[in-house]
Amino acid sequence: MILMLISPLIGLVSLQYFALNYSIQGLNRAILFTPIEIMYKGVVSLGDKPRISRDDFEYIVLSYYDHIIPRYSKKYTVDFYYYNLSDQSMCLTDNCEGVEITINCKLNITYNYYRVMYYELKESSDG
C-alpha cells in the first residue's frame, strides 16, 4: 500500500529533475556556445583601434538571447557592464574595450541559472 503512494511521488520528482536538467543543458548550449560572429557585429573600428559600440552590441546580443532563452526560461535578465582594459574602470562613453555580460534565468521555484561572460578587445601578436 505504501508503495502505491511513494511510486507516483518518485515519478513526479524524476520528471521535475529531467525538466530542470533539460533547461540547464539547453541554456548552457545557447549561452556558452554563442557564435563569436554575433559579438563581432557590435565592434566598430575607430581609426586604428576597434571598440565595442554599446548600442549596436546590446541590440545584437539581446536579439540573439531573446530568440534563444525563452525556450528554456520565461523570466530572465541580461545585464551589460562596459569597462576599459587599461585600468578596469567603468566605460561611460559609447566606445569601450571590454564588456561583462550577466545572464540570470529563473528556471523553477528553487533554481536560478546564473552566468557571467567577459568579452575583451586585445591586440594580437599575429598581426
Structural notes for this entry:
This protein has 127 residues and is an alpha+beta fold. It has one domain (2-120). The protein is 40% helix and 30% strand. It contains three helices and six strands; from the N terminus they run H-H-E-E-H-E-E-E-E. It has helices at residues 2-32, 36-40, 54-68; strands spanning 43-46, 49-53, 75-83, 95-96, 98-106, 112-120. It has a three-stranded antiparallel sheet. It has a three-stranded antiparallel sheet with strand order 3-5-6, covered by helices on one side. It is elongated. The protein starts with a helix and ends in a 7-residue tail after the last strand. The relative contact order is 0.15. The model has no long low-confidence stretch (mean pLDDT 87).
Quickly describe the structure.
By secondary structure, this protein is α+β, with helices and mostly antiparallel strands. 40% of the residues lie in helices and 30% in strands. It has one domain.
Topology record:
Layout: H1 2-32, H2 36-40, E1 43-46, E2 49-53, H3 54-68, E3 75-83, E4 95-96, E5 98-106, E6 112-120
Antiparallel strand pairs: 1-2, 2-4, 3-5, 5-6
Structural domain count? 1
The biggest beta sheet is recorded as: 3 strands, antiparallel
Would you report the number of β strands?
6
N-C termini distance: 74 Å
Structural class, please?
alpha+beta
User: Which stretches of 5+ consecutive residues score pLDDT under 50?
Assistant: none
Strand adjacency order, main sheet: 1-2-4
Beta-strand portion reads 25-35%
- Helical content stands at 40-55%
- Radius of gyration (CA) equals 20 Å
The 3D shape can be described as elongated
Order of helices and strands: HHEEHEEEE
